[in-house]
Amino acid sequence: MKKKTFVLDTNVLLHDPESILKFPKSYVVIPVTVLEELNRMKRLPDELGKHSRTVFRLFDSISKEGRGDLHKGLNLDNGASLRIQLHSKAGMLGDLTPSIRDNRILMSALLLQEQGEVVVFVSKDFAARIKAEAIGLEAEDYENLKFSYDGLYRGIRLIDVTKREVDEFFKDSILKVEANGWKPNEYCVMKSPENSSAIGKYDAADGSVKPLIKFSDLWGVRPRNVEQKCAVDLLCAT
């Protein structure tokens, strides 16, 4: 199956400067017109200016890692390739005149499609997506392409145990668990049907869950929930 080519509109980068990193195993293309618009905005003192500058810093950082170039494509950690598209389809297309920046961005995407790439135009502008579809491009809202938070790894898993296992964990400071995709130092919450519970951390050395580091006070900080207890444990770990 051919990789998709995601052509990003200016408003996507202004909404999320790191959006270029969020299309794994695909081609991410930024039309040169988008760069020109960002360059005009980078001196603004507001959020738009801040995000524009962030995009350019990100480009610079990736370029310095020596993974290719922005013309032919920079190889990203997520298996994607990032490049700048300098050319667009020449001439007018219906009433879409090249003198309008938004139209030049669409024509860049259309040129790539005519060259055989599987193009998806990504924009937060509904009108731009309508125009894209009218000229035969697949168009998507950036929000619809973002990964669900529920699908992200959170570093803490919930495991069902018996009350006896919880009691033994507090007594022996260890609970043997089955190898079930555990990550080293992964945190877990053990909970029984009787609502007995405990928090532990996976020790890959012996395949067991062990208690968090005990402390009474950390610079006056007292954790108030599971996530904060795990964070403090990380700070205290040697």
Automatic annotation (TrEMBL):
Every PIN domain range:
6-143
Gene3D superfamilies, A to Z: 5'-nuclease
Q: Which InterPro entries match?
A: PIN-like_dom_sf (IPR029060), PIN_dom (IPR002716)
List the Pfam families hit by this protein, alphabetically: PIN_4
The name this protein carries in UniProt is Uncharacterized protein ylaK
Q: Per the UniProt entry, what species is this protein from, by scientific name? A: Waddlia chondrophila 2032/99
Gene name, please?
A: ylaK
